[in-house]
Design a protein that fits this description.
The complex is a heterodimer of chains A (296) and B (261).
Chain A lengths: L2 E12 L2 E12 L3 E5 L6 H8 L7 E6 L2 E2 L3 H10 E4 L11 H9 L7 H10 L13 H13 L5 E5 L7 H16 L3 E5 L3 H7 L2 E6 L2 E7 H7 L1 E6 L14 E7 L2 E6 L3 H10 L4 E6 L2 H9 L4
Parallel strand pairs in A: 3-8, 3-9, 6-7, 7-8
Antiparallel strand pairs in A: 1-2, 1-4, 4-5, 9-10, 11-13, 11-14, 12-13
Helix pairs in contact in A: 4-5
Chain B lengths: L1 H29 L1 H13 L9 H6 L1 H10 L2 H14 L3 H7 L2 H6 L4 H33 L6 H28 L3 H28 L11 H6 L11 H24 L3
Helix pairs in contact in B: 1-5, 1-8, 5-8, 5-9, 8-9, 9-10, 9-12
The chains are: A alpha/beta (296), B mainly alpha (261).
């Protein structure tokens, strides 16, 4: 599958603060790619750079082969990309109907059928001004305005923030159905459960650097937690093997997170005379916490 | 749709401008008889004020209106609202939190800027044409007349020279976002010198004197001579003003393109 988003050593500094530090990422066409990271990890800055809203300090990036740092090419990108920002404030002096009419005028491939369906599904009051909408309603309208653009790529920054569980489920279903129709989805979220539900690829960013880039299936199949109890306390340095991502020792107990090479690691642990060895599946949330926690 | 959006955002200011322009025009039309009577009394009184322009003000209604409206108060009201029409754009949206939505649309930053400026210019033209209508009707009510050609020529000159104010206001807002701060700065940087110079140069002209400061008299460039025609129009000043306007718009564009939202 073709790569439609690609960044090479992308950097963004705000004064002395390095928000994004040499990010290399790629997103393949047709995928649902989750972009995970803590607050301030650099997710929104990366997305804004991809869409030409902020300028990279250095490095480069392309969407659909168009360079993100060139204004003219950025315009071409935005013709093909629908974006729903984390801040979902819209023109509060417009009515819902005016807002929809305004937005659709820029997108020749606007999906009228989806618009009608979502207006009904989200119960959006067409004649009400946006300033009179609740936060949840504004979020639903912002999502409608993104989904109905008929674009090849959908970039969502915290799409379900402020939504109730029913609406979240609706949104995830729409994401899945759009993907089935060939739309690529790149979204950031703090809701790991949502990510596990819809994403087929995961990118994790921590302090401006990419710390994980893997398909969801691979994560589920290969990532394992290995817990071993030893007769005597043991040193961390005894576990320097390929595939070990994290080591935590508490007295005689050692907990390892392995990204691959699990069989070899288990064999090594047994060789170190472990009394018991347990190999457990690990959730995406645990992987996320291991990846972003306790880094110096 | 961009023009429609910019119009919705500025329509309150626009209607306020119409009201202000109407008040100024109606006030000076209504005051005509009283002022003429007062100047006549002054001229008849040996100890009264005797200014060179007074006979003209008494006998020429068109001079009277030009002096009070196009050389002074209508021009000032128009300039103030032209600045206010130019405020806004993506910078304001950054403060409102809607800029990410706007920038997600396939619209270049330059087009956002040009749309804002276009609406400001159109509103300014409409405001000045509205004043023409008020003057025509008001003059008819007091049984006076003012040449429509002269009215339109003065209106055209005011807008043509005043376009600089729109560009200046927009750049000021881009550099110093916020209605109050940018208005204050525009008034301090542009408004105060403009008013002081306008008053000083009017005084010198009545004394029949000239100075090099006349080249900077932006107010007079907007007003032009009392009897305006194609040959008496200040073309050189207009050319300088348009050049400056282009520079200011260019600066707003370059700065706007570099802003991180």
């Amino acid at each position: 599958m073709a790569v439609i988003i690609e960044t090479v050593e992308l950097k963004k500094n705000y004064g002395r603060h390095e928000a994004v530090r040499g990010l290399n990422l790629s997103v393949r066409a047709g995928s649902v790619c989750a972009f995970l990271g803590q607050n301030g990890a650099g997710k929104s800055s990366t997305i804004k750079m991809l869409l030409g809203m902020i300028h990279p300090t250095s490095g480069s990036g392309c969407i659909f082969g168009h360079r993100i740092d060139k204004e003219k090419e950025s315009l071409l990108i935005r013709q093909k990309v629908a974006f729903v920002a984390e801040d979902k404030r819209l023109y509060d002096y417009m009515t819902v109907a005016q807002m929809i009419r305004f937005t659709k005028s820029f997108f020749p491939r606007w999906n009228h059928a989806l618009e009608s369906r979502l207006v009904e599904q989200f119960d959006l009051p067409l004649e009400r001004r946006i300033r009179q909408l609740s936060k949840g309603m504004r979020t639903k309208l912002a999502l409608l305005l993104g989904f109905a653009r008929g674009c090849e790529l959908l970039i969502l920054d915290e799409p379900t923030e402020g939504l109730d569980p029913v609406a979240i489920e609706d949104v995830l279903q729409i994401v899945v159905s759009l993907t089935a129709q060939g739309t690529t989805v790149f979204f950031s979220s703090h809701q790991i459960a949502e990510v596990e539900q819809v994403a087929d690829h995961v990118l994790m960013i921590d302090r401006g650097r990419l710390v994980l880039d893997a398909p969801m299936d691979q994560l589920k199949e290969q990532y394992r937690q290995i817990q071993a109890v030893f007769p005597e306390p043991i040193e961390e340095r005894d576990f320097r093997l390929p595939g070990i991502e994290k080591i935590r020792t508490e007295g005689r107990t050692v907990s390892l997170v392995a990204s691959h090479n699990v069989d070899l690691i288990v064999e090594h642990v047994r060789m170190l005379r472990a009394g018991s060895v347990d190999v457990l599946p690990i959730s995406l949330k645990e992987i996320f916490l291991e990846k972003v926690k306790a880094r110096p | 749709m961009l023009l429609y959006k910019a119009w919705i955002e500025t329509r309150v200011r626009f209607f306020a401008g119409l009201i202000a322009a109407a008040i100024v025009c109606i006030f000076y039309i209504e005051q005509h008889a009283w002022l003429v009577e007062m100047w006549t009394r002054e001229l008849q009184n040996p100890k009264g004020y005797h200014f060179a322009w007074m006979p003209l003000g008494i006998h020429e209604y068109s001079w009277y209106l030009w002096h009070y409206l196009y050389d002074n108060y209508l021009q000032q009201v128009w300039a103030l609202f032209a600045v206010l029409f130019a405020f806004g754009g993506l910078i304001r949206e950054k403060n409102n939190g809607t800029v990410l939505f706007s920038l997600s649309l396939p619209v270049s930053r330059s087009r956002w800027l040009l749309t804002r400026l276009t609406v400001a210019v159109l509103e300014s033209i409409t405001l000045s044409l509205f004043a023409v209508v008020v003057v025509l009707i008001g003059s008819a009510v007091i049984h006076q007349s003012y040449s429509l050609t002269q009215l339109l020529l003065h209106t055209a000159l005011m807008v043509a020279a005043g376009i600089f104010i729109i560009a200046f206001g927009n750049l000021c807002y881009t550099l110093f976002p916020g209605n109050y701060l940018s208005l204050l700065l525009t008034l301090v940087i542009l408004g105060v010198p403009y008013l002081l110079l306008q008053t000083y140069m009017q005084h010198l002209r009545y004394l029949g004197r000239t100075t090099w400061l006349g080249y900077l008299d932006f107010g007079h460039a907007m007003a032009g001579p009392w009897k305006l025609n194609w040959t008496s129009a200040p073309w050189l000043t207009l050319l300088m003003t348009w050049t400056l306007t282009a520079v200011l718009i260019g600066a707003a564009k370059v700065y706007g393109d570099r802003i991180d939202y």
